[in-house]
Write a structure and sequence with these properties.
The protein has 88 residues and is mainly β. The protein has one helix and five strands; from the N terminus they run E-E-E-E-H-E. It has a domain of 52 residues: OB fold (Dihydrolipoamide Acetyltransferase, E2P), CATH 2.40.50.220. Helix content is 8%, strand content 39%. It has a five-stranded mixed β-barrel. The chain is globular and about 45 Å long. The relative contact order is 0.26. The model has no long low-confidence stretch (mean pLDDT 85).
Length: 88
């Protein structure tokens, strides 16, 4: 799983038949932009949990769905600048 920030929606009206009409979002994963299928209805600025590989296809609706990154959750609170917690 990845923690990503949603940057903006991506509109693609000309798609292959199996791609259906699922919403797409541009997300920031570290320093790179990626396209993710939005399975939860997030908006720009949200921090989200994304899954990849076969989990992404299944989360998008089917193991045959052509996705390698799907948003599966919106994070309620995330401070990316907070220091890592150290277990004592």
């Amino acid at each position: 799983m990845l923690i990503c920030k949603v940057l903006k929606p991506l509109v693609s009206t000309n798609r292959i038949p199996g791609f259906e009409h699922k919403h797409l979002q541009v997300v920031l994963d570290g320093s790179s932009n990626k396209v993710a299928v939005d399975a939860v209805g997030c908006k720009p600025g949200d921090w989200v949990i994304c899954v990849g590989s076969s989990a992404a296809r299944e989360a998008a609706g089917s193991k045959s769905y052509p996705s390698d990154l799907t948003i599966v959750g919106i994070i309620d609170h995330w401070d990316p600048d907070s220091p890592k917690q150290i277990e004592v």
